[in-house]
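Notes from hallway chat w/ T.B., transcribed later so I don't forget. T.B. wanted the structure written out for a chain they're using in a teaching module, and asked if we could keep both sequence and structure tokens in one place. Agreed to drop them here.
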Amino acid sequence: MDFIVKGWSYVLSTVLALLPIVNPLATVGVLLAITAGLSERERIAQTRRACVYMALILIAFLVAGGLIMSFFGISIPGLRIAGGLIVSYIGFRMLFPEPKTITSQEQREALEKEDVSFTPLAMPSLSGPGSIAVVIGLSSTLRGGDVLLGHVFMAVGIVITALISYLILRAATPLQAMLGATGINAISRIMGFILVCIGVQFVINGVLEIVGGIA
């Protein structure tokens, strides 16, 4: 029973931490812009591949996060503070947004090539620096016997986040018509506030670890 409770707490914490920063609603406009010449069936196929790529990218950083930290000599408190600052910055940008657009060159390149699922959809739109920092930060909280269990259930959380993103992006056309720019912006601002809170908590945890180590 404890195993199940602990496992699903990892799943829930991963989804709640990732979903606001992945923010598939903010990618709806980008998706519609770069797939304007595709049929609905082709757009859905691109969306499905993008979400699969997103899950694979984040799971790779989840598994390799510890190795990356060891290679570059990054401490866990340092990672938490850096990740918290990145997440807070992204949250502030969502609270006080600029239009989420791609450059004319990026759009031209996207329209010219057949597959836009990896870039710019999977990276950087869905799995950018913020979500990667969150995943590595979450993996750094695991200790002892919880490492394997945590990685497995966090990977499940990443897959669930990718599935939610796919369902939202698949409904891009009706969502844009139903919510409009105002509705999407309102939801993005709410997610931005949640992100600021997550980022600040990351920084607090990192500072407390440093103070505790000094003491």
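Follow-up for T.B.: Residues 87 and 184 are 20 Å apart (CA to CA). Might be a good example for the class.
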